[in-house]
Specification:
By secondary structure, the chain is α+β, with helices and mostly antiparallel strands. It has two domains: 104 residues, Beta-grasp domain (Ubiquitin-like (UB roll), Roll), CATH 3.10.20.30; 111 residues, Alpha-helical ferredoxin (Fumarate Reductase Iron-sulfur Protein, Chain B, domain 2), CATH 1.10.1060. It is built from eight helices and seven strands. The strands form two sheets. It has a five-stranded mixed β-sheet, covered by helices on one side. Strands 6-7 form a two-stranded antiparallel sheet. Strand 6 and strand 7 form a beta hairpin.
Amino acid sequence: MSTETVEKEPASKIELAPGVGGGGEIPTFDITLKVRRYNPEVSDDAHWDEWKLTMYGTDRVLDALHKVKWEHDGSVSFRRSCAHGVCGSDAMRINGRNRLACKTLLKDLDTSKPILVEPIKGLPVEKDLIVDMEPFFQSYREIMPFLISKGHEPSAERLQSAEERERYDDTTKCILCAACTSSCPVFWTDGQYFGPAAIVNAHRFIFDSRDDAGDMRLEILNDKEGVWRCRTTFNCTEACPRGIQVTKAISEVKQAILTRSV
C-alpha cells in the first residue's frame, strides 16, 4: 500500500512578536476639536464651540466631526459625501490650512493642542462649515469646461497619442473642492477673479489636442480678472489635495496667451 508524501509548508521568514497581528485593539487618544460656528438664524456673529473626544489612531478629522454630530450636537453642519478624497465636498480650513477632512488623519496633527476647523475663506458662509459655492462654480462654467470640436461628429473615438494626453494629464485630476481657489489671497480680496481652479480646468482643455476652442478660452482668461491677477504665491499648489501643480498650470496658460497673441 503506497502513501503520499505531504510536503511541509516552509516556515515564515518573518517572526511576529507575541500578540502582534492577532487583531488587537486600535490605540486611542484624546483630542480637543474646536469648530467655528455660524448660524444666521440665531446670530450675525460667529463663535467657537469645542468638544473633548476620544478617537482612534485610524480616525480622520471627518470622523471627529461625525462623532460630534452624531453623539454631541446634531446641529453642527458640514458637507461630505464619498469620504475618500474623490468628491471634494469636505474642503475646510484645518489648523489654518485648506485640507480635505476625509484625508487628514488626526494623528498627523498636533493633538496636544486644540484642532481648529473653519470654513474655507473667500466664499460666503451659509452655516458653520458650509459655504456658498455658486461664485466658485460660476467661474468654472465661464471657461467652458467641456470638449468643443468643430466639424461633424466622428464615427469612432477621437484618437490621441500618449504624448498628447500627457500634456494635460496633471490638470485632469481636479475634483473641484475649491481648496486652491479659497487659499488664494487675490480671491479673498477680489471676488471677480476667476481663481486657480477655473484656470486649471481651462488648462485641461486648452492643451487637449482634440479640442478646438483653446483660443476662445485664452481670450476669456486674458482679462483683468483672469490669469494676470495671479501673484504666484504658490498657496494654491500647497493647498491642492490632489497634488496638482496649480501655479505651473497658470504659468503655462499665461505663456500660451502671449505666444498666440504674437
